[in-house]
Design brief:
alpha/beta; Rossmann fold; seven-stranded mixed sheet; 14% strand; Ppm1/Ppm2/Tcmp; SAM-dependent_MTases_sf; transferase; S-adenosyl-L-methionine; S-adenosyl-L-methionine-dependent methyltransferase
């Protein structure tokens, strides 16, 4: 299914289903012998959604295709390292005194429930209305209680989300910890640029941002064709009569602005960590098929007056 400028989705459809796939990876990590983190709510979301392509990680062990099994292992490494990287980012932001958090395209992110937020922390979650409705209903039925003050902001990020965020109590004068996880590849390049322009305008000095961004290799025709072929094989492994999602068809394979460079040009300190570097750090071993995931992990902090005085 192709993308359009005004497309919408439920959690089991289109881009919404990618949140379930990531939840599947978090569930697999949580249930592994030595997990990097624990996210018991990931399995709750999967059970509520039913059968679909997102169950691929549950069925990967029985796959007889060594190539596909290897790629699934690399995906599990990627999602586990990304989750741990962003968890550490929020821990550092909290230690620095930041008490305002914004999770863009929050999907089925459960950090508002599972992380030990300091008193007074407010977490804003932005996503499509149907995705947030599924999430809220599922967790309400499960009896889960957030560990921070949580505010849902139901809006498409291609719309005027800064205005809606302000209307829901966002404080532009307070430093903010921003998460842009698993989002950029599903935005056209011009929409990515607009998103960071808006984020920058809303960020007080001392604000921080974490993101994962596609590398240039993600836009190569060979890479795109390979991902489409792998997605079809994922579907054949995961399918038990449930919903299927062609993840590769949802992303925009376009040349993009370098996020680290853009942040530095706009007064942020910023750095990038490759997937192999992150996996080696968290797993203590080389990444499985290290070149299989064309993405990088980015963190940044908006400079303050004191930074400028010290430089």
């Amino acid at each position: 299914m192709g993308r359009t400028d005004d497309d919408t989705w439920d959690v089991t459809e289109s881009v919404g289903a990618t949140a379930l796939m990531v939840a599947g990876a978090r569930a697999a990590e949580t249930e592994s012998a030595a997990p990097l983190f624990r996210d018991p709510l990931a399995r709750v979301f999967l059970d509520a959604a039913g059968e679909g392509t997102w169950n691929v990680f549950d069925r990967a062990g029985g796959d007889a295709d060594p190539e596909l099994a290897g790629h699934l292992r690399s995906l599990l490494d990627f999602f586990a390292a990304r989750t741990a990287f962003i968890d550490d980012f929020f821990s550092a932001a909290s230690e620095a005194g930041i008490r305002q958090v914004v999770i863009l395209a929050s999907g089925l992110d459960s950090r508002a429930w599972r992380l030990p937020w300091p008193d007074g922390t407010r977490v804003f979650e932005l996503d499509q209305p149907k995705v947030l409705a599924f999430k809220a209903a599922t967790l309400r039925e499960h009896g889960a209680q957030p560990t921070a003050e949580r505010t849902e902001v139901a809006i498409d990020l291609r719309q005027d989300w800064p205005m809606t965020l302000r209307q829901n109590g966002f404080d532009e004068a307070a430093p903010t910890a921003w998460s842009v996880e698993g989002l950029l590849r599903y935005l056209p390049s011009h929409a990515q640029d607009l998103l960071f322009e808006r984020l920058h305008e809303l960020s007080a000095p001392g604000s921080r941002v974490v993101a994962n961004a596609p590398t240039d290799d993600a836009a190569s025709p060979d890479r795109v064709a390979r991902e489409r072929e792998l997605t079809q094989r994922f579907s054949s492994v995961a399918s038990t009569g449930g919903a299927t999602t062609d993840v590769a068809a949802l992303s925009y394979a376009e040349t993009r602005t370098d996020v680290v460079g853009w942040l530095r040009e706009h007064g942020w300190e910023a750095s990038a960590t490759s997937v192999p570097e992150a996996v080696a750090h968290y797993r203590g071993r080389p990444a499985a098929e290290a070149d299989a995931i064309p993405s990088t992990f980015i963190s940044g902090r908006r400079r303050t007056i004191h930074d400028e005085e010290d430089s």
